[in-house]
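TA notes, week 10

Several of you asked for a full example with nothing omitted. So below is the full record: structure tokens for the whole chain, then the designed sequence directly under it. When grading your own attempts, check the secondary structure regions first.
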């Protein structure tokens, strides 16, 4: 697989990137922490041979607490990883068991000390809220545990039940309790209040950072910057083109052996590009810039956006700040619905 991914790096079209420059590399999806330090080093070297990788690039590795030990941390650091994204999810054992996580509470706590001991100063912690067994006080303790550790970056997500999954089946069979949307909304409000008080920037709906610790990788998505995904199921984006690799591992490897990158793609219309900008920009603390819309999509679209957004300003879910439409604290509870309401129809 690694050989095939190296081949894809050398074959993929990179002309859409700004001067072939890269300032963020992210090892994510699946279990990238199972890669050896030598494999990580090989992959990074392959990228540097094709792209102009900034010497201060943010290079992130996703890992779970049960993957982490002192030896691995030191090896990852030596290989070039300078940021970690840790899937802690919860510090409550019953929560971890409900989510079928492999790690336990003790491992979740211990990984902090090991990360700091290895010299990592930039890392992110993932938490999940709204699980059936997590009450408000326990959720507050989860948040306080991370802020007490002074984690530079925190990503928080509401638990979702995907269709046709084992979790959905168990919920339908009454073997597990279903999620409560009202509790999830309450947990999100608690999250915002507590993290704001602790000095974190709420720079994107699900992401919070101490000053200077925003994730460059996450920010690229919300700013609409081009990015390249390498490997099975990986997605790439080049402004008006969205591309995704096939998910079948065997076919992926076979195609690359024949010097072909196996992907599908779609070309986004101007309306689709505008709708994507509406959706992604509203998720950020800077909001939707009406001048950007005017310059890139025209005056008429800008006027329509202003008119359509007026009702959300009147009900306190949006505010206009220097020609930016920004979600209020309450508005963030309805971000997806507000964005959908502002979408433009097909051309």
């Amino acid at each position: 697989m690694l050989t095939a991914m190296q081949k894809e790096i050398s074959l993929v079209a990179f002309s859409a990137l700004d001067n072939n420059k890269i300032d963020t590399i992210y090892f994510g999806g699946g279990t990238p922490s199972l890669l050896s330090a030598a494999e990580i080093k090989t992959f990074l070297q392959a990228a540097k041979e094709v792209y102009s990788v900034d010497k201060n690039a943010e290079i992130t590795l996703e890992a779970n607490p049960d993957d982490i030990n002192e030896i691995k941390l030191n090896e990852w650091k030596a290989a070039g990883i300078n940021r970690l994204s840790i899937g802690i999810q919860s510090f409550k054992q019953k929560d971890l068991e409900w989510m079928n996580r492999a790690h336990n509470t003790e491992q979740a706590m211990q990984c902090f000390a090991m990360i700091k001991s290895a010299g990592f100063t930039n890392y992110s912690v993932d938490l999940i809220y709204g699980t059936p067994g997590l009450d408000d006080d326990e959720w507050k303790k989860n948040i306080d545990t991370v802020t007490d550790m002074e984690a530079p970056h925190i990503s928080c997500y509401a638990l979702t039940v995907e269709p046709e999954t084992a979790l959905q089946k168990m919920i339908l069979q009454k073997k597990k309790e279903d999620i409560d949307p009202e509790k999830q909304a309450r947990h999100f409000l608690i999250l915002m209040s507590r993290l704001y008080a602790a000095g974190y920037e709420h720079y994107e709906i699900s992401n919070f950072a101490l000053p200077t610790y925003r994730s460059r990788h996450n920010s690229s998505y919300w700013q609409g910057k081009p990015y390249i995904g390498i490997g099975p199921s990986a997605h790439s984006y080049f402004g008006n083109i969205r591309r995704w690799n096939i998910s079948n591992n065997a076919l992926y490897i076979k195609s690359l052996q024949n010097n072909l990158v196996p992907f599908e793609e779609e070309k986004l219309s101007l309306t689709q590009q505008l709708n994507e900008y509406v959706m992604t920009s509203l998720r950020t603390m800077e909001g939707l810039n009406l001048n950007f819309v005017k310059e890139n999509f025209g005056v008429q679209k800008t006027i329509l956006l202003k008119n359509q957004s007026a009702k959300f300003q009147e009900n306190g879910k949006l505010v206009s700040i220097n020609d930016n439409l920004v979600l209020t604290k309450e508005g963030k509870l309805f971000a997806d619905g507000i964005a959908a309401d502002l979408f433009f129809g097909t051309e």
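The chain has a mean pLDDT of 91. Use that as a sanity check on your answer.
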